[in-house]
Amino acid sequence: MSQEYRKRVDLFPYFLLSPALIITLLVIFYPIIRTFTYSFMQYILWKPTEIKFIGLGNYLKILEDPVFWISVQNTFIWIVGVISLQLLLGFGTALLLNQKFFWRGIARSLVLIPWVTPSVITALMWRWMYDGNRGVINDLLVRAGILSSYFPWLANDKTALYAIILALMWQGFPFFAIMILAGLQAIPDTLYEAAEVDGASMVQKFTRITLPMLVPVLFTSLMLRIIWVANSLDIIYIMTGGGPGYATHTLPVYSYIRAYKGMDFGYASTIAVILTLLITLFVSIYVRKVLRTEDRGAV
Amino acid sequence: MRKRKKTHRFLQRVFTLHIPLLLILGFALAPYVWTFITSLTPEDDLYLSEFRYFPAHPTGTNYQRLFSRIDYGRNIQDSLIVAVCTMLLGLCITVPASYSFSRYRFIGRTVLLAQFLVINMFPVVLLLVPLFILMRVLGLMDTYLSLIIAYSTFTIPFSTWMLTGFFNAIPKELDEAAQIDGCNRFTTLLRVVLPVALPGISATGIYIFITAWNEFIYAAILTGSNIRTIPIALQNMIGEFKIAWGLLTAGGVVSAVPVIVLFFFIQRQLIHGMTAGAVKG
């Protein structure tokens, strides 16, 4: 098929693509370029006369901004915390769902519910459960004798970030469960049968067959989730607004607060650019991998 | 003897499979159960000194007040308009694009396909400020169009990829047969390939609908008093001092239920689209 179309330049595929490309150029590429240029400008919305080019000014300022460094640190804790919890619970769920039992279909559907829950709803539900006055989590912990009195989980700067991490673990673990389950089901039974003949134990089968066979799936899902979690903004913003103090500031939250509350577009853009550069490594690894797969799948 | 072995195996499975899985499902569903119970609780009961797991007198008052007092119907209408338009615009643009990616090999194909993947991974904050300024300049602030345009920034890349996968799964022989039967390239797409791809296209459309229905960040900066989608309405119910949790949880239930129902319709296709790449890689 490709031979046939290579003889002359065929404009038809470009014609089909053109609406998508034009819109992408206007609402994605143009804004991205603007954000890069704003990051070199002093641009505060309510000071229109003082908008000017300041070169690396914002970048130099940011290096000495303690809130920026707090946000970097929180972003790191956030990613590691959320991803490892989601991965562990998702893996466990996938192993359970990979067995045959009569209510497996229902279980697989129900387990996905957190994943389709809108972020705003996730944030509100967990905020309500963590509530310092009427939160059900406090009630349960007090009843179980773990706490002596109610604790304001989201209003305390030591616990707020971890409380949100737990909420995002809830929302995201089904993703890992489903991806890993698909990976598990793609492992041929013959491998396990052969191992059984050779007298392999359960543990050996897991570490020598299951894990190695899952590496590609785990890798792809990890990349995708790291990028997504690094960028996630709405859950944190709705649960704590970045507070108390700066306790739940991550890079997207800090950028958003600077833009939305401070109307400091230059500085917000600088933070956004830095965040983008930080995740570029993961994006490039992921994109390269997916393109290789797509090529094989399509032709 | 044999029977004892069987009961032993059954018990083993209860402890290693059924109970752990039930616990996980409990964790997955507990927030919903609690939210639903709260939504049935009269607002005053929420502040009783004694903690109750289930209200003494469950009521639908919160749901009534949602529509009578704070005009939730208007919010639903706004959300519906934005989500449906985003879906239609997204599909009209990405169906031809992904068909092109799937069926043709042309110069620049890989680069163009890759850019749709890359832009899908950029943080929202990278686009937020310029889009805000753009909407102000164009006089589109606080209109449906501003949200529809903003949502295209994530629906178009995503939908292009998902649909390309669905088109790839349809054998090319179908197109060739159609052309032998006298279809031109337009009619091949419209009359032969589109009907076959319909399940994939509707799954993608529903997914776009869901993401637009749920979106919060863009709506928070691009709309104000005119247009208020559900996520914004819910967020606004959080006052500075006292939060009307009964009302808020009722609003949450009303907003989440359609999403979950829609999701179950497209579950199979969506999961297939999601996992195909990862497993094959």
Beta fraction of the residues of chain B?
A: under 5%
The appropriate CATH architecture of the largest domain in chain B is Orthogonal Bundle
Structural domains of chain A: how many? 1
What's the helical proportion of residues of chain B? over 70%
User: According to CATH, what is the class of chain A?
Assistant: Mainly Alpha
Look up the CATH topology of the largest domain in chain B: MetI-like fold
Termini separation of chain B (Å)? Answer: 48 Å
Alpha-beta content class of chain B: mainly alpha
- For the secondary structure, the number of strands of chain A is 2
Assembly state here? Answer: heterodimer
Instruction: Give the total of beta strands of chain B.
Output: 0
Cα distance spanning the termini of chain A:
10 Å
Task: Please name the fourth-level CATH homologous superfamily of the largest domain in chain B.
Answer: MetI-like
Spans of chain A of at least 5 consecutive residues whose pLDDT stays below 50 are none
Alpha plus pi helix count of chain A = 14
Strand order of the largest sheet of chain A: 1-2
Rg of chain B over CA atoms, rounded to whole Å, is 24 Å
Helical content band of chain A = over 70%
What is the succession of H and E elements of chain B?
HHHHHHHHHHH
The CATH architecture classification of chain A is: Orthogonal Bundle
Mean pLDDT of chain A: 88
Structural commentary:
The complex is a heterodimer of chains A (299) and B (281). Chain A has 299 residues and is an all-alpha fold. Chain A is 73% helix and 1% strand. In chain A, strands 1-2 form a two-stranded antiparallel ribbon. With 281 residues, chain B is an all-alpha fold. In chain B, 77% of the residues lie in helices and 0% in strands. The longest helix of chain B has 38 residues, at 2-39. The interface between A and B is large, with 102 and 100 residues.
Brief overview:
Chain A is 73% helix and 1% strand. With 299 residues, chain A is mainly alpha-helical. Chain A has one domain (66-298): Orthogonal Bundle (MetI-like fold), CATH 1.10.3720.
